[in-house]
């Protein structure tokens, strides 16, 4: 376990998802600084931390949108550290991701957004894709009628739910979620988290979620990582949180303004947000 004021040490390399000493920079800004974590197949992990901690950048590196400047990203024993890695295409088929801003296509109907992969690859007919999308919408609390709307016709919370439906539409082996309950009311948030737990349990999906809800982080995920300023300051089982004695973790869980995490003033690049 980590000490109260120093970044976490390197993670084990034996996990299904392993990030080892990962560094990622955008110009002069270091988004990820020697980040390590490890997660077993079928396990769940919540990542918490203040804004600009590098959380979203980490997920984008795992999914393959950014290559590593140094360090390694291993998925099932395959090195996918670089965007050009031969194994990247193989793993892209097995990962579902919800982006922070949902990343829906404005020119497509909701059902086309949800089953975009299947339509583009020809693995489903348009009728099959439409029926599949309607079924998924029911799982995220949206009506069949919403399938035929454009993303611009939906509220922010509804767009978030469509993004979740798209992330799970291919029955992925790995599910990466960037704040899946942001902007949702408590009842719907609980529904979505229960659905994610059900997916992980019944399908053996490996799940990593960024969340700002500390109660969800504590109760819905077996493992937790605390990030700040591009570094991991604590990682471990959620069962060990109360005995962690880590200043960064305690401040984040309590939402306190007092502690080692301070607000950074001034503008930062889009890559550094969250």
Automatic annotation (TrEMBL):
The annotated region (Disordered) lies at 253-274
Question: Which InterPro entries would you find in this protein's record?
Answer: AAA+_ATPase (IPR003593), ABC_transporter-like_ATP-bd (IPR003439), ABC_transporter-like_CS (IPR017871), P-loop_NTPase (IPR027417)
List residues of the ABC transporter domain. 17-254
Cite the entry's keywords alphabetically. Answer: ATP-binding, Nucleotide-binding, Transport
Q: Which Pfam families match?
A: ABC_tran (PF00005)
Q: Give the source's domain of life in one word.
A: Bacteria
Write down what this protein is called: Organic solvent ABC transporter
């Amino acid at each position: 376990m980590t000490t109260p004021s120093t970044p976490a040490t390197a993670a084990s390399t034996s996990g299904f998802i392993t990030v080892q000493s990962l560094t990622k920079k955008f110009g002069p800004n270091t988004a990820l600084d020697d980040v390590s974590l490890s997660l077993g197949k079928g396990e769940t992990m919540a990542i918490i931390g203040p804004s600009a901690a590098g959380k979203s950048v980490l997920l984008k590196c795992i999914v393959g949108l950014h290559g590593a400047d140094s360090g390694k990203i291993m998925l099932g024993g395959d090195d996918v550290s670089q965007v050009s890695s031969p194994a990247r295409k193989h793993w892209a088929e097995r990962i579902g991701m919800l982006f922070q801003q949902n990343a829906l296509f404005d020119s497509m109907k909701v059902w086309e957004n949800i089953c975009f992969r299947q339509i583009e690859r020809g693995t489903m007919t348009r009728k099959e894709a439409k029926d599949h999308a309607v079924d998924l919408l029911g799982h995220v609390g949206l009506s069949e009628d919403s399938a035929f709307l454009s993303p611009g016709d939906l509220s922010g919370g509804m767009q978030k739910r469509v993004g979740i439906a798209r992330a799970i539409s291919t029955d992925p082996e790995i599910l990466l979620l960037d704040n899946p309950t942001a902007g949702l009311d408590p009842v719907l948030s609980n529904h979505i988290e229960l659905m994610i737990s059900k997916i992980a349990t019944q399908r053996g999906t490996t799940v990593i979620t960024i969340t700002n809800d500390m109660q969800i982080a504590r109760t819905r995920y077996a493992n937790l990582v605390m990030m700040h300023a591009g570094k991991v300051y604590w990682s471990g089982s959620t069962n060990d949180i109360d005995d962690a004695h880590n200043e960064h973790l305690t401040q984040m869980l309590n939402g306190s303004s007092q502690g080692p995490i301070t607000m950074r003033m001034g503008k930062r690049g889009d890559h550094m947000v969250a």
